[in-house]
Amino acid sequence: MATKWTRDQASVIDHRGSNLLVAAAAGSGKTAVLIERIISLVTDKDRPIDIDKLLVVTFTKAAANEMRERVGLALEDILDKDPENEHLQRQVLLLNRADITTIDSFCGRVVRENFHASDLDPNVRTGDPAEIEMIKKDVIEDLFEDLYDEKNGDFLSLVDLYSARNNDKPLVDLILKLNAFVDSSAYPEDWLDRAAERFNTSGKDDREIISSYLGPYLSNELSILASSIYRLEAVVEQLEGYDDLAKYRDFIGHHLAYLRPILGVLSPRLGQEKTDFDSDLDSGFLDLDLEALKNFIDIYNQERQELKPLG
After folding, report:
1. Phi/psi at 253 (nearest 5 deg)?
2. Residues 39, 72 contacting (CB under 8 angstroms)
3. How many CB atoms lie within 10 A of CB 218?
4. pLDDT of residue 117
5. pLDDT given for residue 280 in this prediction
6. Residues with Cβ within 8 Å of residue 20, at least 6 apart in sequence
7. Letter string b/e over residues 14-52, b meaning 16 or more CB atoms within 10 A of that residue's CB
8. What's the pLDDT score for residue 174?
9. In angstroms, rounded to a whole number, what is the distance separating the alpha carbons of residues 210 and 194?
10. Which residues contact 240 (CB under 8 A, 6 or more apart)?
11. Using an 8 Å Cβ cutoff, are 102 and 58 in contact?
């Protein structure tokens, strides 16, 4: 039974004569449409092409192998209906030479075939993921060792900030994680330049610094605090009337008595009264009463030491 394509799918399959960009959600049939488009190009009645003249790239070897297999099955199915068709017979033979491959494999082949135009060894190959990770770790270990030997001040400050006691592994992991993230950008160096500029406070006033750096962080923390208080108050309400659970209710209530004033300073709009959690908290961080905030936090820290833990 022939596949019934939607109008959009059919337009992708039959489109000719210009570039075509297709965006579709996962599971929408992109692979099936692409295979049908390949077959339609190969079997076009007016201008059929050989399958080894097409370039079909995917991100993984598994996807490339699946694509090649499905194209092969589709060609064989058509050939069964027209076994004397020499063009189709030729396509089945050319399938093993077709560029249905991963992006990195295709780029590697281009480099190897044109090594004379570059400074690369003709035996260059794509590194195995595990091998690449080992190389990254070797490079960063050598770099750290050199910087330790140099007693580089900026580096040592970085180690103090992001490493555990006598262990710089957290900093190494952070750098590798950041490297992996940056490498996913189309222009990694440009991204790093823009990110570094965001932390350049030269010529920026307090309002701009708080808005750019502290504001998003404080808003997130304030949202977490407000949500936690709201949930705890809901728990206290649910515990009302259960005398055997009174110690739990009172324990939570004592903590809430000190947390509410802190929230009141951070978000005057919420105040100290119970309220539903609002994800769009209006917090004027530039107008905070820092002295009052510090006072409430100090009181809470002091009283918390005297609150007996539940046992």
Report:
1. -60, -40
2. no
3. 16
4. 87
5. 44
6. 12
7. eeeeeeeeeeeeeeeeeeebbbbbbbebbbeeeeeeebb
8. 92
9. 18
10. 249
11. yes
- Listed in sequence order, the residues at least 6 apart from 86 whose beta carbon sits closer than 8 Å to its beta carbon are none
Residue 44 carries which side chain, given as an amino acid letter?
Answer: D
Q: How many beta carbons lie within 10 A of that of residue 77, not counting itself?
A: 10
Contact between 60 and 102 (Cβ < 8 Å): yes
Question: By C-alpha distance, which of 243, 229, 220 is closest to 271?
Answer: 229
> Which segments in the chain show pLDDT lower than 50?
269-283
The tokens describing 10, both together, are 């059919």
Q: Which two tokens stand for residue 182?
A: 């940056």
Q: What is the pLDDT of residue 189?
A: 92
At 299 the pLDDT is 84
Q: Are 90 and 52 in contact (CB under 8 A)?
A: no
Joined tokens for residue 57 = 């790239």
